[in-house]
Design goal:
heterodimer; A: mainly beta; seven-stranded mixed beta sheet; four-stranded antiparallel beta sheet; 0% helix; 50% strand; B: mainly beta; six-stranded mixed beta sheet; five-stranded antiparallel beta sheet; globular
């Protein structure tokens, strides 16, 4: 069984550019959440989607947006990149509610220069 | 602002000893509690979850929950060098989001 897959694994972008990160959840999982993890910190919640609807949004600016597709895969978009957006972006999936915890993908390492 | 607090460490424990990791949380409505292990450069891996007050054991790991004190802990018995990692405490909020602490770095001394 494939786990949570994220692409790309690494990405280097220039300030002001736009980036799209992609995530495919575990088969059968309908909920996808996105987290940002800066070095030395815990994951910070960005978005949660369930059945293609946004269920929650963390304290991130409007430059961050996301969506979930009919096949439950998801995209995270970040516009007008800042140096401070450099981080590991993690996608996590779960069956439905978060009761049983999340399974994380391997992440996308974004570097903004 | 709902929070999860952990001592960042590093916590150094001799091989074979018991490692004790602690966490407090602020949302009294939290119902589910998790411990994730994260090796350097890797993504977090779920190792334990607990819902009820008391202890839950799985192999060398024991999770302890005290909802009245809003306190969660993780004990690792017979610590091995491979246990050296950052341990993240996470809780589910009333709106079903999961939030994480900053993590405790654990170093097992051979």
């Amino acid at each position: 069984d494939a786990g949570v897959t994220q692409s790309p694994t690494h990405l280097i972008k220039t300030r002001g550019q736009h980036v799209t990160l992609r995530c495919s959840p575990i088969s059968g999982h309908k909920s996808v959440s996105w987290y940002q993890q800066v070095l030395g910190q815990g994951p910070q919640f960005i978005f949660q989607y369930y059945e293609k609807e946004e269920r929650g949004r963390g304290n991130f600016p409007d430059r961050f947006s996301a969506r979930q597709f009919p096949n439950y895969s998801s995209e995270l978009n970040v516009n007008a990149l800042l140096l401070g957006d450099s981080a590991l972006y993690l996608c996590a999936s779960s069956l439905a509610r978060s009761t049983w915890g999340y399974t994380f993908g391997s992440g996308t390492r974004l570097t903004v220069v | 602002q709902k929070e999860v607090e952990q001592n960042s460490g590093p916590l150094s424990v001799p091989e074979g000893a018991i490692a004790s990791l602690n966490c407090t949380y602020s949302d009294r409505g939290s119902q589910s509690f998790f411990w994730y292990r994260q090796y350097s450069g890797k993504s977090p891996e779920l190792i334990m979850f607990i819902y009820s007050n008391g202890d839950k054991e799985d192999g060398r790991f024991t999770a302890q929950l005290n909802k009245a004190s809003q306190y969660v802990s993780l004990l690792i018995r017979d610590s091995q060098p491979s246990d050296s990692a950052t341990y993240l405490c996470a809780v589910t909020l009333r709106d079903d989001k999961i939030i994480f602490g900053k993590g405790t770095r654990l170093h097992i001394l051979p």
